[in-house]
Amino acid sequence: MLIDAINEIFKIVTTGNKKYKMWMGFLSVLALIGISFVFTQIDQGLIATNMRDQVSWGWYIANFTFLVGLAAAAVVLVIPYYIYNYKPIGEIVLIGEIMAVAAVSMCLMFILLDMGSAERFWHLIPYIGIFNWPGSILTWDVIVLNMYLVLNLTLVIYALAKTYAGKPYKTKFIMPLIFFSVPAAISIHTVTAFLYLGAPARPFWNAAILAPRFIASAFCSGPAFMLIVFQIIR
After folding, report:
1. Does the chain have fewer CB atoms within 10 Å around its N or its C terminus?
2. What is the DSSP string of 95-158?
3. pLDDT tens readout for residues 87-125
4. Is 133 left (phi over 0), alpha (psi -120 to 50) or beta?
């Protein structure tokens, strides 16, 4: 059944009108250009991005911060649909969860790119790398991001499998994941805020209001992006 579902999804993704295929081709070209720049950075180091001591945060950190907030869109939809049984948004909940998976995946990739060399990822693994856990806030951030990714990926795979099979969701399986995803969503913004306010080179970020501000901004940017996407789809 899983192979049939994957084949069906592949057919849907690769089927569309001329505008759709042109758009997918454009995105593919952008992806290839990005991959070529990644290889350039691996060869030359972060100096290829013009980031130095004076400008240590660039495109990677900016997108990482935005995408962490974007991942909150799933929780904004999941809570009213599953917990409060608000059915009118049932058709877009799955889209929000898929977007959360994509956003968190890109967050993790931006962290790898900002390290300079992707092969150093093992330094972020607790007790193995030089960024020893629990002392490293960055390692905490990677842990909570992976937890949130696994939760949303499990929900997406389960929902797609049940929808494809024409069977209803099992509440006993899905509700614990929903309840756990709420504090997980808050944690990814809180730990990210702690990561920024603890940087000695950025004293103006050292403020207690940063964590709640990140959470509030996240619950605005995620739904706002989804509203724009749905307006375009309409």
Report:
1. C
2. HHHHHHHHHHHHHHHHHHHHTS-GGGGGGGSTTTSSS-TTT-HHHHHHHHHHHHHHHHHHHHHH
3. 777 778 888 888 888 888 888 888 888 877 777 777 777
4. beta
In the block, tokens 């042109």 appear at: 22
The alpha-helical segments, DSSP class H, found in 166-234 are 171-197, 210-233
Question: Measuring CA to CA, which residue among 48, 114, 84 is closest to residue 178?
Answer: 84
CB 226 within 8 A of CB 73: yes
pLDDT tens-place string over residues 159-189: 878 777 778 778 788 888 888 888 888 888 8
Q: Alpha-carbon distance 215 to 218, whole Å?
A: 5
Size of the chain, expressed as the number of residues it contains: 234
Write down the pTM of the prediction.
Answer: 0.83
